[in-house]
């Protein structure tokens, strides 16, 4: 069905990537390419300037290790760490990489989503490709 599948993941303990990975496998053509991405939100400059550079480097390294380990659950998947606002960055990356499908997990919407909107909501409304949201 799909040849170029993008799977955004959150790398915290509360999110389980298995449902997204399984859905992506089910939606994929035999020769599909999988890209697992994590979006690192930017740190405000006034905070950034107070954090030692080795702490920033170590944190980025740990995130990359965790991302590569997570992506290894899909044989041959590429892992990419990108920066920006999650919803916007996912849509931009999907467009730039010519993804034909995005498979992402969503949390149960809460009151704050009425005013701010969720990442999944932004992706669903702005992506140019198919989007499969997993709950």
From TrEMBL:
Q: Name one Pfam family in it.
A: Usp
Please give the superkingdom of this protein's source.
Bacteria
Annotated UspA domain residues:
1-135
Q: Which InterPro entries match?
A: Rossmann-like_a/b/a_fold (IPR014729), Universal_stress_UspA (IPR006015), UspA (IPR006016)
Please state which protein family the record places this protein in.
Answer: Belongs to the universal stress protein A family.
Stored PANTHER family = STRESS RESPONSE PROTEIN NHAX (PTHR46268), UNIVERSAL STRESS PROTEIN UP12 (PTHR46268:SF6)
Indicate what this protein is called per its UniProt record. UspA domain-containing protein
Origin species: Ruegeria atlantica
